[in-house]
Amino acid sequence: MKERDEVLQEIRVNIELPEQETLAIELFQNKVLRPILKFQNALILEIFKEYLKKNHRTFSALNQKVQLEIIRDTLKKDQRIKNQFIAIITAFFTVNEYSEYLNELNELNKRIVSMTTQRLQDQLSRLVL
Fold first, then answer.
1. N or C, where is the chain less crowded by C-beta within 10 Å?
2. What mean pLDDT is predicted for residues 121-129?
3. How far is CA 33 from CA 74, 76, 90, in A?
């Protein structure tokens, strides 16, 4: 039977990025966060759709600018959903990645939230019910 870390590495989406000199945190973002966010995309969308049903029933009727602001403000201000998104990403870390994450917890949480916000905004048409 395969170990958890091995299975996590195998299911991760491979994203081709240009080779360049990057900081360790940017490397972590590109090699770990981006593939996990891509893998979790369907779940991210469903969680946010459910949030909209409960909290912004008129979301579909609003103009695009307001919709984008709602996405941004929600992930900025609603600690519950922000923590939910962070949890569904960090759950796919290997043990070593989790250790690295703990060393840069605040910065990586900001990046997770920012990247999730961008992902939701870029797929706005899939959120409109």
1. N
2. 90
3. 21, 19, 9
